Automatic annotation (TrEMBL):
Coiled coil: none
Protein's name in the database: 50S ribosomal protein L20
Superkingdom classification of source: Eukaryota
Gene (name only): rpl20
Alphabetical keyword list: Plastid, Ribonucleoprotein, Ribosomal protein, RNA-binding, rRNA-binding
One GO cellular component term: ribosome
PROSITE patterns tied to this protein: RIBOSOMAL_L20
GO biological process, one term: translation
Stored HAMAP family: Ribosomal_bL20
UniProt organism field: Prototheca wickerhamii
Described function: Binds directly to 23S ribosomal RNA and is necessary for the in vitro assembly process of the 50S ribosomal subunit. It is not involved in the protein synthesizing functions of that subunit.
Cross-referenced InterPro entries: Ribosomal_bL20, RIBOSOMAL_L20_CS, Ribosomal_protein_bL20_C
GO MF, one example: rRNA binding
Family per similarity comment: Belongs to the bacterial ribosomal protein bL20 family.
Amino acid sequence: MTRIKRGIVARKRRKHVLFFAKGFRGSSSQLYRIAQQRINKALIYSYRDRRKKKQEFVQIWISRINATVRNLGLNYSLFQNKLKKSQIILNRKVCGQLALKDINSFEKLFNNLQIKN
């Protein structure tokens, strides 16, 4: 059987892995096997946390809306219910930004809900 020399291919693969491991601490950025393990772990975390980030933003928006609505004398679930009944289509992101940055507009929206129901 003939001998297959893979020096160039193997070196290229290792250099590629070590390139992605730049910035890792200690031997994680210098030793191939450890770097490969750390990169796999990092990719798993990044995939998971891209989805988790969205959940965290929704929680932030809900807490902002809830805090503002409670100051006005209602709670979050009743506020969302009144929004739905009055057929006002505003998502949580927009309501959260209104509650944080433009409280006057949010109060007008809130008072409009109180009048309709």
